[in-house]
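Q: Convert this sequence to structure tokens.
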Amino acid sequence: MNNFVKAMNQDGASFQDICNKFRVLSRAQLNEGIFVGPQIDKLIKDEDFDHTLSGTENVAWNAF
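A:
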């Protein structure tokens, strides 16, 4: 998960969506992709998250 978030466009809509979902995490934690199990589960279960991803991000997310 941390490699996926590190590779994301930090100015893109999908990264901003993650920032909005996890407001309790600092910007540094988000930039480094530091997540715990429940946060990862929340992203995986979110059906709308993959719609915010760009083409290559979406391919990587589906592989994840």
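Residues 8 and 56 are 9 Å apart (CA to CA).
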